[in-house]
Amino acid sequence: MKTKILVTGGTGYIGSHTAVSLIESGYEVVLIDNLSNSSKETVVGIQEITGTKPKLEVVDLTYKKQCADVFAKHNDAKGLIHFAALKAVGESVKRPLQYYYNNLSSLMNTLECTVDNQINNFIFSSSATVYGKPDNVPISEDFEMKRPFSPYGNSKKIAEEIMEDFIVSNDSLSIISLRYFNPIGAHESGIIGELPTGTPNNLMPYITQVAAGVREKLLVFGNDYPTRDGTPIRDYIHVVDLAEAHLKALKRLLDRENEKTMEVFNLGSGKGYTVLEIIHAFEKVSGKQLNYEVTARREGDVPELISLPDLANIKLQWKAKRDLSEMVKSAWEWEKKIRTKVNGE
Ligand code: NAD
Ligand code: UDP
Q: What structural domains and CATH numbers belong to the chain?
């Protein structure tokens, strides 16, 4: 009998890559998603890669009854990974209540349904945004959580606080919260990847769309930061490395190796790259000149965010393995694949 794992947000970018890793490691996977930012075709992609078609339950987790029904149906699951959330930083500034409502009510329903069905092992997608503007880098997990710059980021900070409170009176539950730095890239097959709707907020999909001719030019938000070339530094992590970290976290919980009922880990490479370094890495890998222009700083951006990933390296026995050229190459392969589909070639 395979161990069943529920993956909310499972047709999304990180959820689908994690589903592939879970299936390849012998788990039975049930995806739970309302398809608000993804497509059910992802299930076909997962099947193409793994040879196994995961079950997809189309459920909006903000509805308590829908959540309770799907959990009752799968109450033989042994763990849950909660990816489901809205994630567009800029949109969250315009629609804060939608973000707080969606991200927090779905979390609260999921937590409650998890405990009601004795599923007991819960992994949460958090973000480096919970550190706000840190006083220095690299950032370790014991750095203070500061108010993030967007309602999206704040929903992650509040989510961690809700879980801290919830666990006090639900001691059968164990939680691992994973704070991602900057996930980029796609599965090496080019079959699944990130599908940004509308104008991308993030650097990597913006770069690949400019190179593919979907957008005219990349705007580089500021080159007057106190960094080696004046552009901000981020800790980019390959999405497949990120997926593998979820497997390690899950194993830690299933094997009862966790040292506290709620643990927190940074997931990053520990290395930082500037925006210009990412552009140049892309140009090298793709052989294309990227049309870009330096413009004013983007509000809320901080000069440097780099993780100290030692805790995850030691306790989860996980390390980011894939380098910048693999990240950039896989993102570019994925973009070319989407364009072929869109253009019907
Ligand atoms: P994504 O949008 O591709 O995936 C999220 C999925 O959740 C989507 O498929 C969406 O349809 C689903 N969803 C949203 N609200 C739902 C609801 N109420 N009920 C059911 N399904 C719902 O995003 P992603 O990049 O894969 O991110 C996954 C998680 O990781 C999110 O929680 C996100 O906040 C977090 N995260 C992402 C990044 C990043 O840069 N991608 C960085 C840090 C943290
Ligand atoms: N960035 C940029 N132009 C863009 C998008 C992003 O110059 O169109 C920069 C941004 O200022 C930041 C870095 O790229 O320094 C990474 O931004 P992203 O939005 O991908 O991730 P963040 O670190 O903000 O979560």
A: 4-185+235-267 (3.40.50.720)
